[in-house]
Design brief:
9 helices; single chain; mainly alpha
């Protein structure tokens, strides 16, 4: 297993808040834990800002576009609303880096060459094997279970350039932004107040809940647990991001293959 690396990419070393984690494991809370210049209040702020921005953006888009409640919303509009949510999820970590001297590495940013293929395999396996097993009890109780409904709705709106936009939003943007916020910032905020495994479970539950999709909640919690475990084990979010890419990418790929061509 690779140990954590120093800050990678274009993000400079910018502050004194580095996490001492030479073994690549999640650190326990308590006196020996690193002091972080953020906490649960920043987590709440990021989610609230993102949700408020989404509501404001939705109001503007629906007013300007004159969309009705039952109208099909173009994928470009969906992407705008997604970007509005990211103003909070990405905005708070960015503010911590710019205004509080936090390094990107303190938020778990970093990767090795192995992270890509290992993370993709883990994410695809979670989607293809773990999620179906989780839903077996529900499938035994009802034959009217459509877990892929929201994802299918997105894919149904995609054609031509919309497919590229869908890929960028769901397979590229969401894994990066959500892992930075939920595993880089949120999980570490919880770890400062509770034991690592409890923090892992709580952060995964929060991750599932904020998506506001009741039927998909078990699957979202599952990938939240997997990505959180990877982040704790590695001391960085590289593999978690790639696992998230594999998880979302497999769903999008399978649904796109069902779209008639020609």
């Amino acid at each position: 297993m690779d140990g954590p690396l120093p800050d990678h990419g274009p993000f400079p070393d910018r502050g004194p808040f580095s996490e001492q984690n030479p073994g690549g494991r999640g650190s326990a809370s308590g006196p020996g834990s690193p002091v972080r210049p953020w906490g649960i209040g920043h987590v709440v702020a990021g989610m609230v800002v993102g949700m408020v921005a989404s509501v404001v953006a939705a109001g503007i888009v629906f007013a300007v576009g004159d969309y009705g409640v039952d109208d099909a919303i173009p994928l470009s509009v969906v992407a705008i609303l997604q970007a509005a949510l990211w103003t909070g999820l990405l905005g708070v970590p960015l503010w911590l880096v710019v205004a509080r001297g936090v390094r990107w590495a303190d938020l778990g940013w970093g990767a090795t060459a192995r992270d890509a293929w290992q993370g993709l395999f883990i994410g695809i396996a979670t989607q293809a094997v773990v999620v179906p097993v989780i839903y077996i009890p529900l499938l035994l109780m009802t034959d009217d279970l459509d877990v892929s409904g929201p994802a299918r709705d997105l894919v149904d709106k995609a054609s031509g350039g919309g497919i590229l936009l869908l890929f960028l939003a769901v397979v590229v943007g969401a894994p990066i932004v959500e892992e930075l916020f939920f595993r880089g910032l949120t999980l570490r905020a919880f770890e400062a107040r509770m034991r690592p495994r409890i923090a892992l479970v709580v952060s995964a539950l929060v991750f599932g809940a904020v998506h506001l999709q009741l039927l998909q909640f078990p699957a979202l919690v599952a990938i939240g647990l997997v990505c959180g475990w990877l982040a704790q084990r590695d001391g960085r979010i590289g593999r978690a991001i790639w696992a998230h890419v594999g998880f979302n990418g497999l769903t999008v790929a399978l649904l796109l293959l069902q779209i008639p061509t020609g």
